[in-house]
Amino acid sequence: MKSLLIDGKNIFKKYNHTIALNGLDVHVPAGVIYGLIGLNGAGKSTLMKILVGLETMDEGKLSIFNQSEITSEGLNATGSIIEYPYFYERLTGLENLQLHASYMGFHDEKRISEVLHEVNLTTAARQKVITYSLGMRQRLAIARAILTYPKLLILDEPTNALDPEGMKDMRTLFREINQQYGTTIMISSHILSEMEHLADWIGITDHHKMVQEKTMDEIQKNNRSHLTVCTNNVKKSCVVLEHLGVHDFTVQEDNSIHIYENPDASIIARELVDSGVSLYEISQVNRTLEDYFLEVLHHGGSN
Ligand code: ATP
Q1: Rounded mean pLDDT, 220-245
Q2: Could you tell me the domains of the chain?
Q3: What is the pLDDT of residues 198-228, one digit of tens each?
Q4: Hey, whose CA ends up nearest to atom 11 of ligand 1?
Q5: Does ligand 1 have an atom closer than 6 angstroms to the CB of 42?
Q6: Distance between CA atoms of residues 167 and 186, nearest Å
Q7: More confident call, 236 vs 194
Q8: How far is the CA of 251 from the centre of ligand 1 (A)?
Q9: pTM of the predicted model, to two decimals?
Q10: Ligand 1 pocket, residue 15 CB under 6 Å
Q11: Which of 12, 17, 18, 56 maximizes ligand 1 atoms within 8 Å of its Cβ, making it the mutation to test the pocket?
């Protein structure tokens, strides 16, 4: 296992009488893209605010960049988008980035043009931000967050105002940043299909706690689309499948067979029936991350 860039244990946070985090644990390995998902109000934004020093936790332990508290060095190495992106409205997009760069002591005009290009704002760069749409603001916020080559990016729903093409472009950009610079990215999104294509790790929050942290590979392994076959004779059915060259299948507790390869269902049905087996059901079950997520929420993370 890679070393952890974020290691949080038993984090509690209340706003007056409202519980936002109730003993949440979080483990983000260095160098990964970590997708944080959960229903509205689960505590995702609160966690992200704590990670970038905008809120303090009431109780718990947090190690980030191997430090037991938020440090200015850590914050300098962190780019973030938390909630609505604020800018100097009367300044242009370019001027906003120049100002941010000078605050950060980062003097590289070429990099400013580069990030504007990466988020597709080159043409609008000299327009005042007040004229920007929400989607353009989000692009500018992404440009600002990645400007100084941060080691850590904390992105709270960074693309929720973008159209599908814009989302896809940003997904590609995040993946490139992660691969090129080794940037660790924590990203929250309500659009689970986005996460499916982006995240290496998924953290599922529910009722202000982390209910599951798993790699996307592990989730995909446990959540594969399959062909369900139910017959009166499981043993014989398995022999028929093997005979047909189908090997990637499992027998479930209810005696149904799940076939994960993509075989021709009509051939399987015919061979089973020809062998004398009674076929009760044969159906394709397509599984998405959303199905998995809902199942974890209903089973309290035991999945
Ligand atoms: P969403 O997906 O809707 O953005 P979230 O998972 O990010 O939700 P948070 O915004 O962290 O959840 O909120 C967690 C809980 O804390 C919610 O019940 C919310 O109402 C409450 N909360 C968050 N910020 C504040 C605040 N500033 N004052 C009072 N309550 C707050």
Answers
A1: 93
A2: 4-215 (3.40.50.300), 225-286 (3.30.70.100)
A3: 999 999 999 999 999 999 999 988 888 899 9
A4: 43
A5: yes
A6: 16
A7: 236
A8: 43
A9: 0.86
A10: yes
A11: 18
